[in-house]
Write a structure and sequence with these properties.
Helix content: 40-55%
Largest sheet: 8 strands, mixed
Radius of gyration: 19 Å
Shape: globular
Distance between the termini: 51 Å
Number of strands: 8
Number of domains: 2
Order of helices and strands: HHHHHHEEEHEHEHEHHEHEH
CATH superfamily of the largest domain: Alpha/Beta hydrolase fold, catalytic domain
Number of helices: 13
Structural class: alpha/beta
Strand content: 5-15%
Length: about 350
């Protein structure tokens, strides 16, 4: 019988699949996984199978197959380190494997990936830029993820925008993915996005007069925060985002609380809860005057729908609120419904 913490992770299968993990691999994983201490090891074993397939395909010169297999491996290594902070050596090894596999995949995907590194506070913000085919100066969509995700996890979501003629930039800010090893969470996230846009400004292959940002989960706090202070943002969409993350504390499972402690640098749970209240849009939401699409699941157990309703009332510009009665947190269980809606809406706002 699996430990309770492992059983609880079964609820995340829709998230794994939405990020590109094969459903059959999730079933193989849980069939043989019983102890939390084996979480990273079992994920990494499955990821290693896909990495081996990638290497075999590359040896045969089958670069499309190789790129796709490396991408699957990268996402699976990512979930291997998911919330595995209590095993720092395994966490770091899985992180390194994510980077190894994703970078191997980058040139061989349907929309090749360009590595971007924007200077920021003595380090760099790492990003993954993709451009649509056949568009000289496409608009840009920034993909802002949440508390425990990485830019690699939202690679699949980004394809919805690329198919509609928009470029995408996934990135890890302070307390996230690669940058989490260098900097802790920055509530004033407009500093991060401002540095990214400054870095991209000299390029001639992006139309930075048309920039949207999509924020998922805690990224749904970051996106409105950025739009309130960064005039270069044309439109924003959020999925499962909070109004005040501190007000969500009682709804967060232990793993999410641990993630906030780790990524904020808080010494204990009480300090993490206090820090969560710094991630608030109170007094900030009215400053957002660009068009906003808010997407939320009525069954969201982490960020109650009351959070998005409050945000919708206080935003200073045009707002469209899209509530799915059956949607869970970030609506991972109905990505086929919300992702096309978000991409179509953003394409309309950015005139893609």
């Amino acid at each position: 019988m699996a430990e309770p913490r492992v059983d609880a992770m079964r609820n995340l299968v829709p998230r794994f699949v939405a990020a590109g993990v094969d459903y059959n691999d999730t079933q193989r994983l849980f069939a043989r996984l019983e102890r939390w201490d084996d979480w990273c090891r079992e994920w990494s074993a499955l990821a290693g199978e896909h990495e081996a397939l990638a290497k075999d395909a590359a040896m045969a010169g089958h670069w499309i197959s190789a790129g796709e297999a490396w991408l699957r491996a990268a996402v699976m290594y990512h979930f291997g380190k998911y919330l595995f902070y209590d095993h720092p050596e395994e966490y770091r090894a899985a992180h390194d494997a994510v980077q190894r596999c994703y970078r191997a995949a980058m040139p061989h995907l349907a929309w090749p990936v360009e590595r971007v590194e924007a200077p920021y506070a003595g380090t760099v913000i790492p990003g993954t830029l993709r451009r649509p085919h056949g568009v000289a100066r496409p608009p840009l969509v920034l993909l802002s993820h949440g508390l425990d995700a990485t830019k690699e996890e939202y690679h699949v979501f980004g394809e919805a925008f690329l198919r509609r003629g928009m470029a995408t930039l996934g990135f890890d800010g302070p307390g996230q993915g690669e940058m989490g090893f260098e900097r802790k969470i920055e509530p004033a996230y407009e500093k991060v996005v401002g540095a990214l846009l400054d870095h991209l400004a000299p390029r001639g292959d992006l139309d930075l007069g048309r920039v949207g940002i999509v924020g998922v989960s805690l990224g749904g706090y970051y996106a409105p925060r950025v739009a309130a202070f960064e005039p270069r943002i044309t439109a924003i969409a959020t999925v499962g985002g909070p109004y005040d993350f501190g007000d969500c504390w009682d709804h967060l499972p232990p793993g999410s609380r641990l993630a906030l402690m780790h990524n904020s640098g808080a010494p204990d749970a009480a300090a993490a809860e206090a820090f969560a209240h710094q991630l608030t849009l109170a007094g900030i939401a009215p400053r957002v005057t660009c068009p906003v699409l808010l997407v939320h699941g009525e069954r969201d157990a982490l960020v109650p729908p009351s959070e998005v309703r409050r945000l919708a009332r206080e935003l200073g510009g045009p707002v469209e609120l899209l509530l799915y009665p059956e949607g869970d947190h970030v609506c991972h269980n109905i990505t086929y419904k919300y992702r096309p809606r978000v991409a179509d809406w953003m394409a309309g706002q950015l005139q893609a």
